[in-house]
């Protein structure tokens, strides 16, 4: 097996494992169920969820700055460890304070995904970038889809309750963490660990790294093409996170107001369908990039709406 394909396979398996989280489609129902936790609906939506949002925002900036410095692999391992902490706390804590701590570590978990998505580019030649990108993205989509289907089946047939789903997620996080140790270390990186920089004084190494980072930032955002993409990606990601976070409370209210109050929830099936539709939309729109080449705001709006 070629080295680049081996690396892509190793990373993709990690990505698949970390997405096996069948507890997530029903996490809101688990959090507000007084059988397992003593918190109210309002505390979850107005205290717990915002804590996670701010935690993610702050840690994302830090992770972005240190990913290159740490050479990727340690942060991928950190991602797995943070996942283990999150789901162990969900299983064995009951207080509001415990949930806030959960959200802090969940912010670490989400922010560290930067290392997962960028690790492969430091290990393979540029000619394989498109292939390895498709592999790592496909692993995420496959894991998310299977997770949604599994959650729906287990809940629908009453094989597991909402709390027990967390055991599967916890096991997947442990497996992902152990698998992360199999990833090869990155010897060189773009900024802090360039080839031949080992003999440089530490201060000089940091100065040159930040100078190069500043130059790349300046050059990138002078390009209107990059600027448009960055703006729309930021806005669409923000919208997606908001919808993903608060759609479960909304569904819960809709079900409670439904005449048949005992109707089943289809959160898992919805997640699986959304993942598949998102994949098909991206796949279809990828053939049109030469038509509008992302120069028009309409094209960007169309792409990110489907995304």
From TrEMBL:
Keyword Membrane: yes
Membrane-spanning ranges: 46-67, 74-92, 98-117, 138-159, 165-186
Superkingdom as given in the UniProt entry: Eukaryota
GO molecular function ontology, one term from the record: vitamin transmembrane transporter activity
UniProt keyword terms in alphabetical order: Membrane, Transmembrane, Transmembrane helix
Any one Pfam family match given in the protein's UniProt record, by short name: Folate_carrier
Record's GO cellular component terms: plasma membrane
InterPro entries referenced in this protein's UniProt entry, alphabetically: Folate_carrier, MFS_trans_sf
Family: Belongs to the reduced folate carrier (RFC) transporter (TC 2.A.48) family.
Protein name in the entry: Thiamine transporter 2
């Amino acid at each position: 097996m070629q080295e680049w394909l081996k690396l892509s396979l190793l990373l993709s398996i990690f990505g698949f494992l970390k997405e096996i989280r069948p507890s997530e489609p029903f996490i809101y129902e688990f959090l507000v169920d007084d059988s397992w936790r003593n918190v109210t609906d309002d505390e979850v939506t107005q205290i717990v969820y915002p804590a996670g949002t701010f935690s993610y925002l702050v840690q994302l900036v830090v992770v972005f700055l240190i990913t290159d410095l740490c050479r990727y692999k340690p942060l991928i391992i950190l991602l797995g460890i943070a996942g283990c902490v999150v789901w162990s706390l969900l299983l064995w804590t009951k207080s509001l304070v415990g949930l806030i701590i959960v959200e802090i570590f969940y912010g670490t978990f989400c922010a560290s995904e930067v290392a997962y998505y960028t690790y492969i580019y430091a290990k393979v030649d540029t000619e394989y970038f498109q292939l390895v990108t498709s592999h790592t993205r496909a692993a995420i989509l496959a894991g998310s889809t299977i997770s949604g289907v599994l959650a729906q089946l287990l809940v629908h047939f009453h094989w597991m309750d909402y709390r027990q789903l967390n055991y599967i997620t916890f096991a997947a996080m442990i497996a992902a963490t152990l698998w992360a140790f199999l990833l090869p270390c990155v010897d060189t990186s773009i900024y802090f660990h360039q080839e031949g920089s080992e003999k440089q004084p530490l201060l000089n190494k940091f100065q040159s790294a930040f100078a190069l980072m500043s130059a790349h930032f300046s050059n990138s955002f002078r390009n209107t093409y990059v600027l448009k993409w960055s703006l729309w990606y930021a806005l669409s990601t923000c919208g997606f996170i908001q919808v993903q976070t608060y759609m479960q409370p909304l569904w819960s209210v809709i079900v409670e107001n439904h005449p048949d109050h005992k109707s089943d929830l289809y959160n898992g099936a919805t997640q699986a369908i959304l993942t598949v539709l998102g994949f098909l939309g991206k796949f279809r729109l990828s053939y049109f990039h030469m038509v509008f080449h992302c120069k028009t705001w309409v094209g960007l709006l169309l792409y990110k709406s489907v995304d």
